[in-house]
Amino acid sequence: MKKIQIYCTSIKYYSVLDKLPSYIKPLGLGEAQFPNTWLNEKTNKNIKHLNKYYGELSGFYWIWKNKIDEFEEDDLIGFCHYRKLWLNYHRDKKNKQSANSIFTDLLKSTNGVFDKTDVIQVQPIIFKNRNLLDDFFIIHKNNILEKSLDFLKEPIKDNFLQNLKKNILFPLNMFITKKSFFVEYCNIIFPWLDECFKYCEKNNLLSSYNTRLPAFLAERFTSFWFSQQQNKTSLSYARLGNFFLSNNLNKYINPLKVPFTSRMYPTIHRY
User: Which of 39, 141, 198, 266 is the one with CA 20 to 30 A from 255?
Assistant: First the structure.
């Protein structure tokens, strides 16, 4: 039977994440303090000093270097964020009303999708009037995404370029995949990301919103890399607001179990 382990990355301690099912483990990133019950990238082999630039990718690196031997080849490894949690289905439209809680709709380890696929991505953003290169330039005001192609070898370089000329993005650096695919991904993305980071530093691109430029580049590559796989599917996700993340509130209630309308989730992008 496949082992399923999802890592929920966070740069701060939020007590609501303590209430997630056991197959979703909180992983603390950066310099903040976290309880001993959390995994923490400050331990063992890490690139925590790059977290402010790499975002959740520093957590991917930590899992790759310190936890990968705990998995068999076909076991599933996944990632979500402290504000963005996998749901147990794919929904293209929001229901008018839902009495369910996030906890009810949260991804279950018993979901049959795990037996049928090698890769699960977040449901995609489909842009109507621009491709992925255009979108990146509009947001970040530089051509680093095109330049980043120079740091890849063929045929990955050309395949990535062809993907960037399309209009479909699987966002957020969220995915679930088997161990062998994850290792292959890490062996390619981290040397590439290192070259991208050095180029960004040299050209003074890492400031303000673009401080996390390497993470935004990785989002495009991650979307491309896993979308290449034949045996894949996608699921929806919920985005948590401050109400759900409040440590003070969470002393008294578990907001993951509080019913609320589906106006708040699933998170569906329309561009």
Answer: 39
Which amino acid is located at 200 in the chain?
C
Asked, for residue 263, whether it belongs to a domain, the answer is no
* CA-based nearest residue to 89, from 264, 262, 236: 236
Half-sphere exposure of 202 (CA within 13 A, CB side): 7
Query: What tens-digit pLDDT sequence spans the chain (271 residues)?
Result: 689 999 999 999 999 999 999 999 999 999 999 999 999 999 999 999 999 999 999 999 999 999 999 999 999 999 999 999 999 999 887 766 566 788 999 999 999 999 999 999 999 999 999 999 999 999 999 999 999 999 999 999 999 999 999 999 999 999 999 999 999 999 999 999 999 999 999 999 999 999 999 999 999 999 999 999 999 999 999 999 888 999 999 999 998 988 876 667 788 887 7
* Other beta carbons less than 10 A from residue 220's beta carbon: 22
Domain residues for the domain of 84 are: 4-257
* CATH assignment at residue 72: 3.90.550
Does residue 271 form part of some domain?
Answer: no
Rounded CA-CA distance 162/129 in Å is: 17
- Split into its structural domains, the chain has a count of 1
What tokens does 265 get?
């989730």
Does residue 270 lie in a domain region? no
Read off the pTM: 0.96
